[in-house]
Amino acid sequence: MNDARWQFSIRDLLLVTTIVSICLAIGVHYVGVIIVVVTVGLIEVAILLYADWLIHPENRRALAFVTAFSWATLGSGLLALAGRAGFQAIQITTDASGNWMLAIVLMLGAVVSYLMAAYRWRQIVP
């Protein structure tokens, strides 16, 4: 039972614990959105794990397409969340600075995601 793929370092476990804690903290505030994000993420992870053929060298174009599509999907989700935060900031008459800041950060994340998608897409098209 001494299989190397099931051995984790303390650093890896602390990193995973930190990521899960951050996701849970965000999930407390955005319950409905987080359920959708986690579901889509789990579906994507399952597809990529079962699509083992993507990692072979002859299928690099397909892998680049899947990666570009994943980045574009993430960017669209962040843009939708930014729109929601901006709309909430417009509706709130007092102390809406937190919602505006959240909307700006989410929009910047969406721009980065779209740029990564474009970069991956350029790897497909010669």
- Domains (count): 2
Main beta-sheet annotation:
none
Instruction: Give the mean pLDDT.
Output: 79
- Helix % is over 70%
Work out the helix count. 4
Strands, total number? 0
- Structural class designation: mainly alpha
First-to-last CA distance: 46 Å
Shape: globular
Tell me the fraction of residues in β-strands, as a range. under 5%
Element order: H for helix, E for strand? HHHH
From the alpha carbons, calculate the radius of gyration and give it in angstroms: 18 Å
Low-confidence stretches: none
Spell out the key features of this protein.
126 residues; mainly alpha; 2 domains; 4 helices; globular
Structural overview:
This protein folds into two domains: 1-50; 56-126. The chain has four helices and no strands. The N and C termini lie far apart (46 Å). With 126 residues, it is mainly alpha-helical.
